[in-house]
């Protein structure tokens, strides 16, 4: 359901939230290497996220990407809206333009509840997801440590 861009963006934002504050900024190259994501791809993903205030960035020799308490108020839905648009949870799972409750596609009734539940869960603040990483033993990288 989510594109690679959204998956990479969520991983990157959570990684930045855990590892980069205003005094410990991270470069796109470092983030890409640590998460095993193509560097050119992550650089394209991080810029619009910074412009929308989901992460923070600073240019220059001491610059990079970092996370603030204000960034933590944004939600995972905000990340997805930047990478895929605001209709990702309302458009048809099969891509049919006229699908809806009155004109359902073959899988509409199967996925409508799932999409609503996912939307609700993804409206959780990024800071909450970040805190859950520590408490639930989640991980962000598939790269062997």
Features of the shown structure:
single chain; 145 residues; mainly alpha; Arc Repressor Mutant, subunit A; two-stranded antiparallel sheet; 6 helices; 2 strands
Write the layout of secondary structure elements.
Layout: H1 4-19, H2 28-35, H3 39-51, E1 56-58, E2 64-66, H4 76-84, H5 108-122, H6 126-136
Antiparallel strand pairs: 1-2
Q: What does it look like?
A:
This protein is mainly alpha-helical and 145 residues long. The protein has a domain at 4-86 and 125-136: Orthogonal Bundle (Arc Repressor Mutant, subunit A). It has helices at residues 4-19, 28-35, 39-51, 76-84, 108-122, 126-136, and strands at residues 56-58, 64-66. A two-stranded antiparallel sheet has the order 1-2. A hairpin with a 5-residue loop joins strand 1 and strand 2. The two termini are 29 Å apart. The mean pLDDT is 89.
């Amino acid at each position: 359901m989510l594109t690679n861009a959204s998956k990479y963006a969520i991983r990157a934002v959570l990684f930045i939230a855990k590892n980069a504050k205003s005094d410990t900024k991270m470069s796109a190259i470092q983030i890409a290497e640590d998460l095993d994501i193509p560097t050119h791809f992550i650089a394209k993903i991080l810029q619009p996220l910074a412009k929308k205030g989901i992460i923070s960035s600073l240019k220059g020799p001491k610059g990079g990407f970092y996370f603030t308490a204000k960034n933590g108020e944004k939600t995972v839905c905000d990340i997805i809206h930047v990478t895929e648009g605001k209709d990702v949870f309302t458009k048809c799972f099969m891509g049919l333009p006229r699908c809806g409750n009155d004109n359902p596609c073959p899988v509409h009734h199967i996925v409508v509840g799932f999409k609503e539940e996912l939307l609700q869960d993804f409206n959780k603040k990024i800071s909450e997801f970040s805190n859950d990483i520590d408490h639930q033993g989640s991980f962000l990288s598939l790269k062997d440590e």
